Amino acid sequence: MEKRLIVRGGMVVTPAEVVAADVLIEGERIAGLAAHGAEARAGAQVVDAGGCLVFPGVVDPHTHIQLDTGVYQTADNWEIGTRTAAFGGVTTVVDFATQFPGMTFPAALDARLKECAPALIDYGLHMMVTDLPQDPAEARQWLEALRDLGVPSIKLYTTYRPNYYADDAVLLHTLRAMPDDMIALVHCENDALVTDATARLVAAGRTSWAYHGQGRPPEAEVEAIRRVMYLAKVAGKAVYIVHCSTADSVSQVRKAHDAGNWPPVYCETCPQYFWLDDSRYAGANAEHFILQPPLRPRERMVKLSDVWRTLSAVSTDHCDYSLAQKQEFREFTRTPGGLPGLETSFALTYTAGVHLPHAEGRPTEALPLTALARLMAADPARLFGLYPQKGAILPGSDADLLIYDPGPEVTLRAEAMHTVARYTPYEGMTVKGQVRTVLSRGDVLVSDGQLFGTTGRGRFLRGASFTPPPAQH
Question: Is residue 341 a contact partner of residue 318, using CB atoms and an 8 Å limit?
Answer without folding.
Answer: yes
